[in-house]
Amino acid sequence: MSSLKEVTMWTKGDLQKLIKEKLSGYKFIVVSNRQPYVHVMKKGKIECQRGAGGVITALDPIMQACNGLWVAYGNGDADRRVTDAEGKIMVPSENPKYTLKRVWLTKEEEDGHYYGFSNEALWPLCHMAFQRPVFKNSDWEYYVQVNKKFAEAVLKEVGKKKAFIWIQDYHLALLPKILKEAAGKRLIIAHFWHIPWPNFETFRICPQKHDILEGLLSNDILGFHIRHHRDNFIDAVDRELESKIDKERFSVIRSGHETLIRPHPISVDFEGISETSHSPAVNAAVEILREEFPLKGKRVILGLDRIDYTKGIPERLLAVDRLLEKYPKFKEKIVFLQMGEISRIHIGKYKALNDEINRVVEEINWKHSTDDWDPVIMVRRHLSFHELLAFYRLGDLCVVSSLHDGMNLVAKEFVSSRSDGEGMLVLSQFTGAARELTDAILINPYDREQFCDGIFQALNLSDDERHKRMEKLRQIVQHNNIYRWAGKILSELLRFEFKE
Ligand code: F6P
Description:
By secondary structure, this protein is α/β, with parallel strands linked by helices. The protein is built from 18 helices and 18 strands.
Protein backbone atom coordinates (compact mmCIF):
# COMPACT_ATOMS: atom_id res chain seq x y z
CA MET A 1 0.00 0.00 0.00
CA SER A 2 1.82 3.05 -1.27
CA SER A 3 0.47 5.62 1.16
CA LEU A 4 1.44 3.49 4.14
CA LYS A 5 4.89 5.01 3.74
CA GLU A 6 7.12 5.73 6.68
CA VAL A 7 6.15 9.27 7.63
CA THR A 8 8.99 10.88 9.58
CA MET A 9 7.03 13.64 11.29
CA TRP A 10 3.37 12.71 11.63
CA THR A 11 0.87 15.55 11.48
CA LYS A 12 -2.87 15.73 11.95
CA GLY A 13 -3.06 16.07 8.13
CA ASP A 14 -1.09 12.82 7.58
CA LEU A 15 -3.41 10.94 9.87
CA GLN A 16 -6.50 12.42 8.23
CA LYS A 17 -5.12 11.46 4.81
CA LEU A 18 -4.40 7.90 5.93
CA ILE A 19 -7.87 7.54 7.39
CA LYS A 20 -9.59 9.07 4.36
CA GLU A 21 -7.68 6.98 1.83
CA LYS A 22 -7.65 3.68 3.63
CA LEU A 23 -10.57 3.63 6.02
CA SER A 24 -13.35 5.03 3.87
CA GLY A 25 -15.87 2.34 3.02
CA TYR A 26 -15.26 0.65 6.36
CA LYS A 27 -16.62 1.38 9.78
CA PHE A 28 -14.03 2.74 12.23
CA ILE A 29 -15.01 2.26 15.84
CA VAL A 30 -13.10 3.16 19.00
CA VAL A 31 -14.28 1.47 22.21
CA SER A 32 -13.38 2.47 25.76
CA ASN A 33 -15.03 2.40 29.14
CA ARG A 34 -14.46 6.11 29.86
CA GLN A 35 -16.31 8.48 27.56
CA PRO A 36 -14.64 11.53 26.00
CA TYR A 37 -17.50 13.89 26.91
CA VAL A 38 -19.85 13.71 29.83
CA HIS A 39 -23.10 15.67 30.27
CA VAL A 40 -23.76 16.75 33.84
CA MET A 41 -26.34 18.90 35.60
CA LYS A 42 -24.77 22.08 37.03
CA LYS A 43 -26.99 24.61 38.78
CA GLY A 44 -30.06 23.35 36.92
CA LYS A 45 -28.36 23.46 33.51
CA ILE A 46 -26.82 20.73 31.36
CA GLU A 47 -23.06 21.16 31.02
CA CYS A 48 -20.83 19.17 28.67
CA GLN A 49 -17.36 18.42 30.11
CA ARG A 50 -14.40 16.72 28.48
CA GLY A 51 -13.46 13.61 30.48
CA ALA A 52 -10.16 13.37 32.35
CA GLY A 53 -7.39 10.82 31.85
CA GLY A 54 -4.84 9.66 29.36
CA VAL A 55 -7.12 7.82 26.93
CA ILE A 56 -9.21 10.89 26.30
CA THR A 57 -6.29 13.28 26.07
CA ALA A 58 -4.83 11.03 23.40
CA LEU A 59 -7.84 9.91 21.41
CA ASP A 60 -10.11 12.93 21.31
CA PRO A 61 -7.89 14.83 18.82
CA ILE A 62 -7.63 11.69 16.69
CA MET A 63 -11.37 11.16 16.60
CA GLN A 64 -11.87 14.84 15.84
CA ALA A 65 -9.55 14.35 12.90
CA CYS A 66 -11.29 11.27 11.51
CA ASN A 67 -15.05 11.56 12.22
CA GLY A 68 -15.33 7.98 13.52
CA LEU A 69 -17.64 6.45 16.10
CA TRP A 70 -16.67 6.12 19.77
CA VAL A 71 -18.51 3.62 22.00
CA ALA A 72 -18.24 4.25 25.77
CA TYR A 73 -20.13 4.03 29.04
CA GLY A 74 -22.52 6.95 29.59
CA ASN A 75 -21.90 7.79 33.24
CA GLY A 76 -23.07 11.44 33.35
CA ASP A 77 -26.26 12.37 35.20
CA ALA A 78 -27.52 14.28 32.14
CA ASP A 79 -26.18 11.90 29.46
CA ARG A 80 -29.53 10.32 28.61
CA ARG A 81 -31.21 13.68 28.21
CA VAL A 82 -29.05 14.68 25.27
CA THR A 83 -28.65 11.43 23.32
CA ASP A 84 -30.96 9.94 20.70
CA ALA A 85 -32.81 6.61 21.04
CA GLU A 86 -29.63 4.70 20.13
CA GLY A 87 -27.62 6.52 22.79
CA LYS A 88 -25.82 8.64 20.19
CA ILE A 89 -24.71 12.26 20.20
CA MET A 90 -22.26 14.28 18.10
CA VAL A 91 -19.32 15.74 20.06
CA PRO A 92 -17.68 18.08 21.02
CA SER A 93 -20.91 20.02 21.50
CA GLU A 94 -19.44 23.41 20.45
CA ASN A 95 -17.98 21.98 17.23
CA PRO A 96 -19.35 18.49 16.52
CA LYS A 97 -16.82 16.24 14.77
CA TYR A 98 -17.61 12.62 15.61
CA THR A 99 -20.31 10.36 17.06
CA LEU A 100 -20.29 9.21 20.66
CA LYS A 101 -22.46 6.18 21.30
CA ARG A 102 -23.20 5.63 24.96
CA VAL A 103 -23.60 2.19 26.53
CA TRP A 104 -25.88 2.26 29.57
CA LEU A 105 -24.82 0.26 32.62
CA THR A 106 -26.70 -0.44 35.84
CA LYS A 107 -25.26 0.64 39.18
CA GLU A 108 -24.45 -3.01 39.95
CA GLU A 109 -22.63 -3.36 36.63
CA GLU A 110 -20.60 -0.19 37.26
CA ASP A 111 -19.79 -1.40 40.76
CA GLY A 112 -18.67 -4.86 39.72
CA HIS A 113 -17.04 -4.01 36.39
CA TYR A 114 -15.45 -0.58 36.90
CA TYR A 115 -14.91 -0.23 40.64
CA GLY A 116 -14.59 -3.97 41.16
CA PHE A 117 -12.66 -6.11 38.71
CA SER A 118 -11.13 -3.28 36.65
CA ASN A 119 -9.95 -1.09 39.50
CA GLU A 120 -9.71 -3.33 42.56
CA ALA A 121 -8.20 -6.29 40.72
CA LEU A 122 -6.55 -5.39 37.39
CA TRP A 123 -5.36 -1.87 38.26
CA PRO A 124 -3.33 -2.83 41.37
CA LEU A 125 -2.27 -6.08 39.66
CA CYS A 126 -0.68 -4.20 36.76
CA HIS A 127 0.82 -1.30 38.73
CA MET A 128 3.63 -2.07 41.14
CA ALA A 129 2.41 0.33 43.78
CA PHE A 130 2.25 -2.30 46.49
CA GLN A 131 -1.52 -2.38 46.81
CA ARG A 132 -2.96 -5.86 47.06
CA PRO A 133 -5.44 -6.69 44.27
CA VAL A 134 -8.88 -7.97 45.33
CA PHE A 135 -10.41 -10.68 43.12
CA LYS A 136 -14.11 -11.16 43.84
CA ASN A 137 -16.14 -13.68 41.86
CA SER A 138 -19.12 -11.35 41.66
CA ASP A 139 -16.91 -8.55 40.24
CA TRP A 140 -15.60 -10.94 37.63
CA GLU A 141 -19.16 -11.93 36.65
CA TYR A 142 -20.02 -8.26 36.11
CA TYR A 143 -16.78 -7.77 34.20
CA VAL A 144 -17.84 -10.55 31.80
CA GLN A 145 -21.38 -9.17 31.57
CA VAL A 146 -20.24 -5.62 30.80
CA ASN A 147 -17.75 -6.80 28.18
CA LYS A 148 -20.68 -8.61 26.52
CA LYS A 149 -22.77 -5.45 26.69
CA PHE A 150 -20.05 -3.46 24.94
CA ALA A 151 -19.80 -6.22 22.33
CA GLU A 152 -23.54 -5.96 21.60
CA ALA A 153 -23.25 -2.21 21.12
CA VAL A 154 -20.29 -2.59 18.75
CA LEU A 155 -21.88 -5.41 16.76
CA LYS A 156 -25.06 -3.41 16.33
CA GLU A 157 -23.02 -0.61 14.79
CA VAL A 158 -21.02 -2.95 12.56
CA GLY A 159 -24.13 -4.65 11.18
CA LYS A 160 -23.17 -6.49 7.98
CA LYS A 161 -20.25 -4.18 7.21
CA LYS A 162 -16.52 -4.69 7.56
CA ALA A 163 -15.02 -2.73 10.40
CA PHE A 164 -11.77 -1.71 12.03
CA ILE A 165 -12.20 -1.76 15.80
CA TRP A 166 -9.81 -0.07 18.17
CA ILE A 167 -10.32 -1.11 21.81
CA GLN A 168 -8.80 0.84 24.69
CA ASP A 169 -7.56 -0.42 28.01
CA TYR A 170 -7.98 -2.98 30.72
CA HIS A 171 -11.71 -2.62 31.24
CA LEU A 172 -12.38 -4.53 28.02
CA ALA A 173 -9.95 -7.46 27.98
CA LEU A 174 -12.65 -9.95 26.96
CA LEU A 175 -14.21 -7.83 24.24
CA PRO A 176 -11.89 -8.91 21.36
CA LYS A 177 -12.74 -12.57 21.84
CA ILE A 178 -16.49 -11.97 22.03
CA LEU A 179 -16.34 -9.82 18.89
CA LYS A 180 -14.18 -12.25 16.93
CA GLU A 181 -16.44 -15.16 17.84
CA ALA A 182 -19.47 -13.23 16.65
CA ALA A 183 -18.17 -11.60 13.47
CA GLY A 184 -14.50 -12.49 13.17
CA LYS A 185 -14.18 -12.39 9.40
CA ARG A 186 -15.57 -8.90 9.14
CA LEU A 187 -13.53 -7.39 11.94
CA ILE A 188 -9.92 -6.33 12.27
CA ILE A 189 -9.15 -5.45 15.86
CA ALA A 190 -6.39 -3.53 17.61
CA HIS A 191 -6.30 -3.14 21.37
CA PHE A 192 -4.16 -0.72 23.32
CA TRP A 193 -3.36 -1.54 26.95
CA HIS A 194 -2.78 1.88 28.52
CA ILE A 195 -1.34 0.66 31.81
CA PRO A 196 1.79 -1.39 32.55
CA TRP A 197 1.82 -5.16 32.11
CA PRO A 198 3.40 -6.69 35.22
CA ASN A 199 6.12 -9.31 35.43
CA PHE A 200 5.03 -12.93 35.57
CA GLU A 201 5.56 -13.32 39.33
CA THR A 202 2.92 -10.67 39.80
CA PHE A 203 0.54 -11.62 37.00
CA ARG A 204 0.35 -15.30 37.90
CA ILE A 205 -1.73 -14.64 41.05
CA CYS A 206 -4.72 -13.53 38.96
CA PRO A 207 -7.40 -16.27 39.12
CA GLN A 208 -8.81 -15.25 35.73
CA LYS A 209 -5.42 -15.00 33.99
CA HIS A 210 -6.28 -17.51 31.25
CA ASP A 211 -9.50 -15.76 30.26
CA ILE A 212 -7.69 -12.43 30.17
CA LEU A 213 -4.81 -13.71 28.06
CA GLU A 214 -7.17 -15.53 25.69
CA GLY A 215 -9.34 -12.45 25.35
CA LEU A 216 -6.34 -10.31 24.44
CA LEU A 217 -4.97 -12.91 22.02
CA SER A 218 -8.10 -12.56 19.90
CA ASN A 219 -6.82 -9.14 18.82
CA ASP A 220 -4.91 -8.73 15.58
CA ILE A 221 -2.65 -6.17 17.26
CA LEU A 222 -2.08 -5.65 20.96
CA GLY A 223 -0.19 -2.49 21.94
CA PHE A 224 1.72 -1.48 25.07
CA HIS A 225 3.59 1.75 25.72
CA ILE A 226 7.04 0.27 26.13
CA ARG A 227 9.00 -2.84 25.16
CA HIS A 228 9.33 -3.95 28.73
CA HIS A 229 5.52 -4.34 29.05
CA ARG A 230 5.36 -6.12 25.68
CA ASP A 231 8.04 -8.56 26.89
CA ASN A 232 6.22 -9.13 30.19
CA PHE A 233 3.04 -9.96 28.26
CA ILE A 234 4.81 -12.40 25.94
CA ASP A 235 6.45 -14.01 28.96
CA ALA A 236 3.04 -14.47 30.62
CA VAL A 237 1.65 -16.12 27.48
CA ASP A 238 4.73 -18.32 27.19
CA ARG A 239 4.31 -19.64 30.72
CA GLU A 240 0.54 -19.92 30.86
CA LEU A 241 -0.86 -20.92 27.47
CA GLU A 242 -0.12 -23.38 24.73
CA SER A 243 0.89 -21.18 21.86
CA LYS A 244 3.66 -20.47 19.38
CA ILE A 245 5.70 -17.37 20.07
CA ASP A 246 7.48 -15.86 17.10
CA LYS A 247 10.37 -13.92 18.60
CA GLU A 248 11.33 -12.36 15.27
CA ARG A 249 7.91 -10.86 14.60
CA PHE A 250 6.99 -10.39 18.26
CA SER A 251 3.78 -12.26 17.71
CA VAL A 252 1.79 -15.03 19.36
CA ILE A 253 -0.02 -17.70 17.36
CA ARG A 254 -2.74 -19.55 19.19
CA SER A 255 -5.45 -21.73 17.65
CA GLY A 256 -4.35 -20.58 14.19
CA HIS A 257 -4.75 -16.88 15.00
CA GLU A 258 -1.77 -14.52 15.09
CA THR A 259 -1.60 -11.46 17.36
CA LEU A 260 1.17 -8.91 16.84
CA ILE A 261 2.40 -7.54 20.17
CA ARG A 262 3.79 -4.04 19.77
CA PRO A 263 5.31 -1.20 21.78
CA HIS A 264 3.79 2.15 20.76
CA PRO A 265 4.45 5.02 23.18
CA ILE A 266 1.35 7.19 23.40
CA SER A 267 1.61 10.96 23.29
CA VAL A 268 -0.30 14.24 23.01
CA ASP A 269 -1.26 16.70 20.28
CA PHE A 270 1.97 18.71 20.53
CA GLU A 271 1.15 21.31 17.85
CA GLY A 272 -2.42 21.81 19.07
CA ILE A 273 -1.37 22.24 22.71
CA SER A 274 1.63 24.39 21.84
CA GLU A 275 -0.52 26.78 19.82
CA THR A 276 -3.58 26.86 22.06
CA SER A 277 -1.57 27.42 25.23
CA HIS A 278 -0.84 30.99 24.11
CA SER A 279 -4.29 31.77 22.70
CA PRO A 280 -6.37 34.68 24.05
CA ALA A 281 -8.71 32.23 25.84
CA VAL A 282 -5.81 30.61 27.69
CA ASN A 283 -4.19 33.99 28.42
CA ALA A 284 -7.47 35.05 30.04
CA ALA A 285 -7.60 31.81 32.05
CA VAL A 286 -4.00 32.41 33.25
CA GLU A 287 -5.04 35.81 34.62
CA ILE A 288 -8.03 34.30 36.44
CA LEU A 289 -5.84 31.61 38.06
CA ARG A 290 -3.23 34.22 39.05
CA GLU A 291 -5.95 36.16 40.83
CA GLU A 292 -7.29 33.05 42.51
CA PHE A 293 -4.00 31.81 43.99
CA PRO A 294 -1.40 33.77 45.99
CA LEU A 295 1.54 33.10 43.65
CA LYS A 296 2.88 36.61 43.13
CA GLY A 297 6.67 36.77 43.42
CA LYS A 298 6.93 33.04 44.15
CA ARG A 299 8.60 30.18 42.25
CA VAL A 300 5.69 27.87 41.46
CA ILE A 301 5.98 24.07 41.60
CA LEU A 302 3.03 22.29 39.99
CA GLY A 303 1.48 18.90 40.43
CA LEU A 304 -1.54 17.71 38.48
CA ASP A 305 -3.08 14.27 38.75
CA ARG A 306 -6.10 12.12 39.09
CA ILE A 307 -5.94 11.35 42.80
CA ASP A 308 -4.61 7.83 42.57
CA TYR A 309 -2.18 5.88 44.74
CA THR A 310 0.00 5.16 41.70
CA LYS A 311 0.77 8.86 41.20
CA GLY A 312 3.04 9.30 44.22
CA ILE A 313 1.26 12.40 45.57
CA PRO A 314 2.15 11.93 49.27
CA GLU A 315 5.76 11.21 48.21
CA ARG A 316 5.79 14.49 46.27
CA LEU A 317 4.46 16.43 49.25
CA LEU A 318 7.08 14.88 51.49
CA ALA A 319 9.82 15.83 49.02
CA VAL A 320 8.64 19.47 49.16
CA ASP A 321 8.61 19.24 52.95
CA ARG A 322 12.19 17.95 52.89
CA LEU A 323 13.21 20.71 50.49
CA LEU A 324 11.99 23.32 52.96
CA GLU A 325 13.75 21.55 55.84
CA LYS A 326 17.02 21.11 54.00
CA TYR A 327 17.09 24.41 52.10
CA PRO A 328 15.19 26.89 54.33
CA LYS A 329 16.16 29.72 51.96
CA PHE A 330 13.16 28.59 49.88
CA LYS A 331 10.72 29.50 52.66
CA GLU A 332 8.26 32.13 51.40
CA LYS A 333 9.96 31.86 48.00
CA ILE A 334 8.16 28.83 46.61
CA VAL A 335 4.56 27.61 46.41
CA PHE A 336 3.62 24.03 45.61
CA LEU A 337 0.27 24.07 43.80
CA GLN A 338 -1.24 20.60 43.53
CA MET A 339 -4.35 20.20 41.41
CA GLY A 340 -6.12 16.89 41.81
CA GLU A 341 -9.22 15.41 40.31
CA ILE A 342 -11.14 13.11 42.63
CA SER A 343 -11.17 9.62 41.16
CA ARG A 344 -12.67 6.16 41.92
CA ILE A 345 -13.84 7.51 45.27
CA HIS A 346 -16.09 4.52 46.04
CA ILE A 347 -12.98 2.40 46.50
CA GLY A 348 -11.65 2.35 50.08
CA LYS A 349 -8.00 2.81 49.07
CA TYR A 350 -8.84 5.98 47.18
CA LYS A 351 -10.81 7.38 50.13
CA ALA A 352 -7.87 6.59 52.40
CA LEU A 353 -5.47 8.28 49.98
CA ASN A 354 -7.57 11.45 49.98
CA ASP A 355 -7.49 11.48 53.78
CA GLU A 356 -3.75 10.87 53.77
CA ILE A 357 -3.16 13.75 51.34
CA ASN A 358 -5.29 16.09 53.48
CA ARG A 359 -3.33 15.12 56.55
CA VAL A 360 0.10 15.54 54.93
CA VAL A 361 -0.84 18.94 53.40
CA GLU A 362 -2.12 20.12 56.76
CA GLU A 363 1.05 18.96 58.55
CA ILE A 364 3.43 20.54 56.06
CA ASN A 365 1.56 23.85 56.08
CA TRP A 366 1.45 23.83 59.90
CA LYS A 367 5.16 23.12 60.07
CA HIS A 368 6.44 25.70 57.58
CA SER A 369 3.80 28.40 57.10
CA THR A 370 4.36 32.03 58.11
CA ASP A 371 1.83 34.83 58.65
CA ASP A 372 1.16 35.31 54.98
CA TRP A 373 2.50 32.20 53.29
CA ASP A 374 1.44 28.55 53.04
CA PRO A 375 3.87 26.36 51.13
CA VAL A 376 1.23 23.97 49.76
CA ILE A 377 -2.03 24.78 48.01
CA MET A 378 -4.14 21.72 47.33
CA VAL A 379 -7.07 22.11 44.94
CA ARG A 380 -9.44 19.33 43.99
CA ARG A 381 -11.36 20.14 40.88
CA HIS A 382 -11.93 19.42 37.24
CA LEU A 383 -10.16 21.74 34.80
CA SER A 384 -11.48 22.53 31.35
CA PHE A 385 -8.93 22.14 28.54
CA HIS A 386 -8.19 25.90 28.50
CA GLU A 387 -7.83 26.01 32.29
CA LEU A 388 -5.52 23.02 32.13
CA LEU A 389 -3.21 24.76 29.67
CA ALA A 390 -3.38 27.95 31.74
CA PHE A 391 -2.46 25.94 34.81
CA TYR A 392 0.68 24.58 33.13
CA ARG A 393 1.75 28.13 32.32
CA LEU A 394 1.79 29.08 36.01
CA GLY A 395 4.65 26.73 36.80
CA ASP A 396 8.39 27.11 37.06
CA LEU A 397 8.46 23.35 37.57
CA CYS A 398 6.02 20.54 36.94
CA VAL A 399 6.55 17.47 39.11
CA VAL A 400 5.35 14.03 37.98
CA SER A 401 6.21 11.42 40.60
CA SER A 402 4.29 8.26 39.72
CA LEU A 403 5.31 5.12 41.57
CA HIS A 404 4.51 3.24 38.36
CA ASP A 405 2.84 4.58 35.23
CA GLY A 406 2.30 3.19 31.74
CA MET A 407 3.22 6.52 30.13
CA ASN A 408 1.99 9.68 31.95
CA LEU A 409 0.64 12.33 29.64
CA VAL A 410 0.78 15.19 32.15
CA ALA A 411 4.55 15.21 31.56
CA LYS A 412 4.08 15.45 27.79
CA GLU A 413 1.26 18.00 28.04
CA PHE A 414 3.36 20.25 30.26
CA VAL A 415 6.31 20.14 27.87
CA SER A 416 4.03 20.81 24.88
CA SER A 417 2.29 23.72 26.58
CA ARG A 418 5.53 25.63 27.22
CA SER A 419 6.09 27.15 23.81
CA ASP A 420 7.67 30.04 25.75
CA GLY A 421 10.57 27.61 26.36
CA GLU A 422 10.31 28.19 30.11
CA GLY A 423 9.67 25.74 32.91
CA MET A 424 11.29 22.42 33.78
CA LEU A 425 10.01 18.91 34.29
CA VAL A 426 10.87 16.74 37.30
CA LEU A 427 9.88 13.22 36.31
CA SER A 428 9.68 9.83 37.99
CA GLN A 429 11.97 7.26 36.44
CA PHE A 430 9.11 4.75 36.81
CA THR A 431 6.91 6.33 34.13
CA GLY A 432 6.88 5.21 30.51
CA ALA A 433 7.53 8.86 29.65
CA ALA A 434 10.94 8.73 31.35
CA ARG A 435 12.21 6.45 28.55
CA GLU A 436 11.77 9.31 26.08
CA LEU A 437 12.06 12.45 28.21
CA THR A 438 15.60 11.89 29.37
CA ASP A 439 16.36 15.62 29.58
CA ALA A 440 13.90 16.03 32.43
CA ILE A 441 15.30 15.83 35.96
CA LEU A 442 14.67 12.15 36.68
CA ILE A 443 13.86 11.14 40.24
CA ASN A 444 13.01 8.06 42.28
CA PRO A 445 9.83 8.99 44.21
CA TYR A 446 10.61 6.39 46.86
CA ASP A 447 13.93 8.12 47.66
CA ARG A 448 12.89 11.26 49.53
CA GLU A 449 16.37 12.74 49.71
CA GLN A 450 17.12 12.22 46.01
CA PHE A 451 13.64 13.48 45.07
CA CYS A 452 14.14 16.62 47.17
CA ASP A 453 17.57 17.17 45.58
CA GLY A 454 16.01 16.70 42.13
CA ILE A 455 13.57 19.56 42.83
CA PHE A 456 16.48 21.60 44.20
CA GLN A 457 18.51 20.92 41.05
CA ALA A 458 15.58 21.88 38.81
CA LEU A 459 15.05 25.14 40.72
CA ASN A 460 18.74 25.98 40.37
CA LEU A 461 19.37 25.22 36.71
CA SER A 462 20.91 28.13 34.85
CA ASP A 463 18.58 29.75 32.29
CA ASP A 464 20.78 28.45 29.53
CA GLU A 465 20.77 24.86 30.75
CA ARG A 466 17.03 24.93 31.41
CA HIS A 467 16.24 26.31 27.96
CA LYS A 468 18.46 23.69 26.30
CA ARG A 469 16.79 20.86 28.20
CA MET A 470 13.28 22.15 27.49
CA GLU A 471 14.10 22.55 23.82
CA LYS A 472 15.21 18.91 23.62
CA LEU A 473 12.15 17.73 25.53
CA ARG A 474 9.88 19.68 23.21
CA GLN A 475 11.60 18.27 20.12
CA ILE A 476 10.99 14.73 21.36
CA VAL A 477 7.30 15.26 22.07
CA GLN A 478 6.88 17.15 18.80
CA HIS A 479 8.31 14.19 16.90
CA ASN A 480 6.72 11.39 18.94
CA ASN A 481 3.34 13.06 18.90
CA ILE A 482 -0.14 11.61 19.15
CA TYR A 483 -0.59 11.46 15.37
CA ARG A 484 2.51 9.32 15.12
CA TRP A 485 1.16 6.95 17.80
CA ALA A 486 -2.19 6.59 16.05
CA GLY A 487 -0.68 6.64 12.56
CA LYS A 488 1.72 3.80 13.36
CA ILE A 489 -0.96 1.63 14.95
CA LEU A 490 -3.47 2.28 12.18
CA SER A 491 -0.89 1.74 9.41
CA GLU A 492 -0.15 -1.67 10.88
CA LEU A 493 -3.84 -2.44 11.32
CA LEU A 494 -4.54 -1.52 7.71
CA ARG A 495 -2.07 -4.12 6.49
CA PHE A 496 -4.41 -6.88 7.66
CA GLU A 497 -6.78 -8.35 5.10
CA PHE A 498 -10.43 -9.10 5.86
CA LYS A 499 -11.03 -12.85 5.68
CA GLU A 500 -14.12 -12.69 3.42
O1 F6P B 1 -3.98 5.99 32.45
C1 F6P B 1 -4.71 4.82 32.59
C2 F6P B 1 -6.18 5.10 32.62
O2 F6P B 1 -6.93 3.96 32.77
C3 F6P B 1 -6.61 5.68 31.36
O3 F6P B 1 -6.69 4.69 30.44
C4 F6P B 1 -7.84 6.35 31.81
O4 F6P B 1 -8.25 7.29 30.91
C5 F6P B 1 -7.38 6.95 33.12
O5 F6P B 1 -6.55 5.98 33.64
C6 F6P B 1 -8.50 7.43 33.99
O6 F6P B 1 -9.14 6.42 34.64
P1 F6P B 1 -10.68 6.39 34.90
O7 F6P B 1 -11.32 6.06 33.60
O8 F6P B 1 -10.85 5.34 35.92
O9 F6P B 1 -11.09 7.74 35.38
